[in-house]
Amino acid sequence: MRDDDAMDLTPTLADMTDRIHAMRPDPGERLIIGIVGAPGAGKSTLARALTAALNDRAPGSAVQVPMDGFHLADVQLDRLGLRQVKGAPPTFDSDGYAVLLERLRRDRERPIYGPDFERDLEQPIAGAVVVEPSVEVVVTEGNYLLLGSDAWPRTRAACHEVWFVGVDDDVRVQRLIGRHVQFGKSAQDAQEWVLRNDEANARLVIDSAVGADLQITMR
């Protein structure tokens, strides 16, 4: 993955921060911006860069809250027989994610804690993210914010806008294979996992892009 400063984006990062600063949430609400993209599209990189850009303008004003913290732990995936499709919609706690986003939007009276995902362990970590009452913007990124089933429509409704980021499929697939190798899979196993599992999920995400408020291209 390239450095944040080197990202080639259309619209630009400055355009995106201007768009956010022009939004006017209801009194007492915190602004929630969702970023959606297929696996390997660069969601986390964009969310991190956008959060940093917002904090450059107003320190402490933005926090990144990832959907990946709502991965079901492997012990639950084993119980449900879903370990071989880890990353698919049923392998997330979509209800828990929806409830957290609803709280983040409407509750600015106390600190709110959320989970993160530890890549080295490939497991969620409870309470790893904190959003203080002073935070004005939450940037949340995940594959499935625009899906129409289970609790995913609630996650969409909790966001003021959801943006879709796209990248060339060849770039995205190679990026995914490299990521799986980095975290312990052989090159052969990584390719098999991506083509069997991640790409099935990618088709779901790409098909949902029509519901996005903004289309972003990453090169």
TrEMBL record:
UniProt signal peptide: none
What are the GO MF terms of this UniProt record?
A: kinase activity
Q: Which InterPro entries match?
A: P-loop_NTPase
Q: Which Pfam families match?
A: MeaB
Origin superkingdom? Bacteria
- Assigned keywords, A-Z: Kinase, Transferase
NCBIfam families this protein is in? PRK09270.1-2
Q: What is this protein called?
A: Nucleoside/nucleotide kinase family protein
